[in-house]
Amino acid sequence: MSQIDEHDRALGRKAALIIAVATILWLLLQWIGRQQGWSAQVALIGDLAAIAAYIYALALVWRIWRRKSGK
């Protein structure tokens, strides 16, 4: 297995971990916010942070895909 394949696998695992952690933290934040009676503005901050994490993970996957397609 080449070093590039190993690097792509590592990036794939990183993207999967980012997606999983962001989702779990977002769900926890929503649950805690509902329990504590936080305002919608506070919930929006959590939503935007989760979206940023998803975009970063998408960029990692895009990089892997571009490298595999040879472009």
UniProtKB/TrEMBL annotation:
The chain crosses the membrane at residues 12-32, 38-62. It holds the Pfam family DUF5337. It comes from Thioclava sediminum. It comes from the Bacteria. Keywords: Membrane, Transmembrane, Transmembrane helix. This is DUF5337 domain-containing protein. InterPro entries: Uncharacterised_Ynq1.
